[in-house]
Amino acid sequence: MVTTPNDIRAHDWNELNDQIFEGSWNETLQRYRTPFAFRGVSSVQHDLKTSLMRLGGDYAILEQVILRNFRKYAHRDASPGDSVWNWMALAQHHGLPTRLLDWTFSPYVALHFLTANLDAYDEDGALWCVNIRLLRRLLPEKLKKILNEEYAIGFSVDMLGRAALSLQEFDRLADEPFAIFFDPPALDQRLVNQLAVFSMMSSPTAALDEWLADKPDLYRRIIIPAELKWTVRDRLDDLNVTERVLFPGLDGLSSWLKRYYSPRNR
Questions:
Q1: Phi-psi map region of 259: left, alpha, beta (phi>0 left; psi -120 to 50 alpha)
Q2: CB under 8 Å to 83, separation ≥6 — which residues?
Q3: How many whole angstroms separate alpha carbon 200 and alpha carbon 161?
Q4: Taking Cα atoms as reference points, which of 197, 207, 195 lies closest to residue 103?
Q5: DSSP assignment string, 92-124
Q6: pLDDT, tens digit, 9 for 90 and up, residues 181-198
Q7: If 0-12 CB within 10 Å is exposed, 13-18 middle and 19+ buried, where does residue 80 land?
Q8: Chain mean position to CA 18
Q9: How many helices (DSSP H) and strands (DSSP E) are in the chain?
């Protein structure tokens, strides 16, 4: 998807912040609490296809096979629980093709991933914002009931385990495709620091951007022009939203130093 009906173009850092936090005032709490999950991509040409879709072939059939073998060969204590939801989160976190997509509750973390690739600074980037508070009205009744009982707007893996014990059971909760967002277990400090959240469709062949296309009240996409990327990147470094923080350890430290000291005219 190259353009969407809900594209908004940011022209400077201050305007970008206004667009990010628009609609975040919570009248009940009398505080700012954004209802959005965010995903930053380095190019507006990037769609919301999953890594499973990009695998190609009979990927819908292979989903079960790949996950089953992942569980078979992974360390016995690799997952914090034996539910399919814990295994799905673990698999996504370690790069296995799944129907999950990585999101974050922090717009600045999403902007980090949008600007992390210096080789894409000649392209406009995009910040996807999905309102998960409004999303719940389109959920199957069983899932709505669980959210209401927990006074929650998103799911945990334990809550999903109460709704379905398998992907097949989950997919059968409604006749039409639907989307959910759920918090992964705290597998490591990286997920914690990134305020990570996963999206998932109720079918391995359903793409989130295509599902959102006729639901304009659920999302917006903020376009970050190529000429604004350096400003955004420098502001994020000032805010300490860097690889050193988001990827704790020597790998993250090295990535941060390499990018931070790269000249603009590289």
A1: alpha
A2: 157, 158, 160, 161, 165
A3: 14
A4: 197
A5: HHTT---SEEEEES-HHHHHHHHHS-GGGTTS-
A6: 999 998 899 999 999 999
A7: middle
A8: 21
A9: 14, 10
Q: Tell me the whole-structure pTM to 2 decimals.
A: 0.93
pLDDT tens figures, 122-165: 999 999 999 999 999 999 999 999 999 999 989 999 999 999 99
Tokens, residue 84: 């399919």
* Residues contacting 266, CB < 8 A, separation 6+: 118
Residue 255 tokens read as: 């990535």
* Residue 249 backbone phi and psi in degrees, to 5: 125, 180
What whole-number distance in Å separates Cα of residue 98 and Cα of residue 88?
7
Question: In one letter, which amino acid is 161?
Answer: G
Is 10:3 a contact under the CB 8 Å cutoff? no
Q: How far apart are the first and last CA of the chain?
A: 30
Half-sphere exposure of 264 (CA within 13 A, CB side): 8
Other beta carbons within 10 angstroms of residue 1's beta carbon come to: 16
- C-alpha distance from residue 150 to each of 44, 110, 143, 156, 161 (Å): 36, 27, 11, 10, 14
Name the nearest CA neighbour of 154 among 135, 175, 129, 173.
Answer: 135
Distance separating alpha carbons of residues 6 and 11, to the nearest angstrom: 16
Q: Which of 183, 128, 192, 127 is nearest to 152 (CA)?
A: 183
Beta strands in the chain (DSSP E): 7-9, 25-26, 31-32, 36-41, 100-104, 125-131, 155-156, 179-183, 196-201, 219-224
